[in-house]
Design a protein that fits this description.
two-stranded antiparallel sheet; alpha/beta; binds heme C
């Protein structure tokens, strides 16, 4: 063990260095963040954007202070922002230190009850691909570490790509994964964490995914492979190979909202492979850029405008991230004692029936897209929560039954009104569950409408 540990820790300075190239030469920067330290940037104000796609979402990629160069928000403020905009959770991401401890503090002092998680990235500051860094993250009080990133900014790929002369971390040599990579993979499997591929070569990423799958890792992430060649930059064929291994491909909000090549590549990849292989994280945090939730909202809008369906947005912003941090995909299936519309209180099939009934009896005035017309109000999203927040589902059903359709109130079956409400709920971001919501009024009275999952 001692021998292993020593060889692991020396990987950054010695083993990984190309022969004859002094990695500690005083000529170049010693650290990636050097260039960012004094970068002038004007903070960007909070735009307070909201969207049904982010209500119940989990941001798996939230940069924050404290960091080695200025960030827009600290970890507590990121957690508060995410909670206040209705997210279900957030993973604090730092390239150089573990964040499970910070997640513990955020839950204790900033956002009790909110799902804040930590992670570790195996860059130089934790000794590279260092199994001890993973063991430490796993054991930190609270046990909130969820993601292990392979090397990112200090990856051999990125340092070489940028032709820099600074310490880097290798994951393979001569086409084979290094032993410590397999050791980390085994730890990830043992603790049922998520493994993210970092900024390695595409072929290395695929090797890592294959080894991880073979070792029993269930939660696999390809770190933003659509963004820029400086990072892992994959072709559609490589993405397909990753998806076939069961990996989820990360799309960063920042990449989508600034348009251009990254956004074009992301859309092409979603169309080619299907949204079920992707998830969206903000990757926000840099001073001068949109904050985390604004980034997610703008990304959701851009994807929607490009034709991505609400169901696919739900997968990419909510369900897949929940799976990756090992939370139940739906907040709760147990609704016997009432609860809220965030507890999965109706089924997918029921919402589809509701959609059909809505199309027949309501869409003429409130429109197919639920946005309403000059006379009839919008019925979903923010409008839904503005009208029904703190009411019960029964209130909404009874109001609609007694007054709608405007030209023929109470002309539908009681169950059809309930189904229509489940459709409106689903369109507003509420999760589906495994049990149908019946027209039993005693039951309907127990289910509260809140604009975000309860905490
Ligand atoms: C003929 C046009 C028309 C049809 C069809 C129609 N609505 Fe409306 N609806 C309106 C108008 C106009 C309003 C605003 C005035 C009002 O509240 O009566 C409205 C208001 C509403 C409201 C807001 C009520 C409130 O108290 O805030 C809801 C909810 C609603 N409709 C649901 C439905 C549902 C569900 C259906 C289908 C079963 C439906 N509407 C069919 C025209 C229509």
């Amino acid at each position: 063990m001692t021998v292993r540990a020593i060889s692991t820790l020396s990987i950054v300075g010695l083993l990984a260095a190309p022969v004859g190239r002094p990695v500690n030469a005083q000529t170049g920067p010693q650290a990636h963040w050097e260039q960012y330290k004094n970068q002038p940037a004007t903070p960007q104000p909070d735009q307070h954007l909201t969207d049904p796609a982010i209500v119940g979402a989990i941001d798996l990629h939230a940069h924050h202070d404290p960091d080695s160069y200025p960030r827009e928000l600290d970890g507590f403020d990121v957690a508060k922002l995410a909670r206040d905009r209705g997210l279900r959770g957030v993973v604090l991401k730092n390239h150089w230190t573990e964040t499970a401890g910070l997640a513990y503090l955020a839950r204790k002092y900033a956002t009790p009850g909110f799902e804040v998680f930590g992670a570790v990235t195996l860059d130089t500051a934790v000794g590279g691909v260092n199994p001890q860094a993973v063991r430490y993250m796993v054991d930190v009080v609270g046990h909130l570490g969820r993601i292990v990133w392979m090397p990112t900014h200090d990856s051999e790929h990125e340092v070489r790509y940028n032709k820099e002369s600074r310490p880097f971390v290798s994951v393979s040599r001569g086409g084979k994964l290094l032993p410590e990579v397999n050791e980390v993979i085994a730890l990830v499997a043992e603790h049922d964490l998520a493994l993210a591929t970092g900024h390695v070569e595409p072929e290395e990423a695929l090797q890592i995914l294959r080894a991880a799958k073979a070792a029993g890792v269930k939660r696999l992430i390809v770190t933003h492979p659509l963004l820029d060649p400086q990072f892992t930059y994959m072709s559609i064929e490589q993405l397909r190979a990753a998806a076939d291994l069961g990996a989820f491909i990360e799309i960063t909000g920042g990449g989508v909202i600034r348009g251009g090549e990254p956004s074009r590549r992301a859309l092409a990849a979603i169309r080619a492979l299907g949204a079920r292989h992707f998830f969206v994280g903000s990757d926000a945090g840099l001073v001068g850029r949109e904050n985390h939730t604004d980034t997610l909202v703008l990304a959701a809008r851009a994807l929607r405008a490009a034709g991505v369906s609400e169901a696919d947005l739900t997968l990419m912003f909510k369900d897949t991230p929940a799976f990756l941090v090992n939370l139940p995909v739906r907040p709760s299936q147990s609704t016997a004692a009432g609860g809220t519309v965030w507890d999965g209180v109706f089924t997918e099939a029921q919402a589809s029936r509701g959609e059909a009934a809505y199309g027949r009896s309501c869409a003429a005035c409130h429109k197919e897209d639920l946005l309403g017309s000059a006379t009839a109000p919008a019925l979903a999203g923010e409008a839904f929560f503005r009208r029904w927040n703190e009411s019960t589902v029964d209130d909404a059903v009874q109001t609609m039954k007694s007054s709608m359709p405007q030209d023929a109130p109470n002309s539908l079956e009681a169950q059809a009104y309930v189904d229509i409400v489940t459709y409106l709920l689903k369109a507003s971001g509420s999760p589906t569950g495994s049990v149908e919501l019946t027209a039993d009024r005693d039951r309907l009275k127990l289910i509260r409408v809140t604009s975000a999952p309860s905490r």
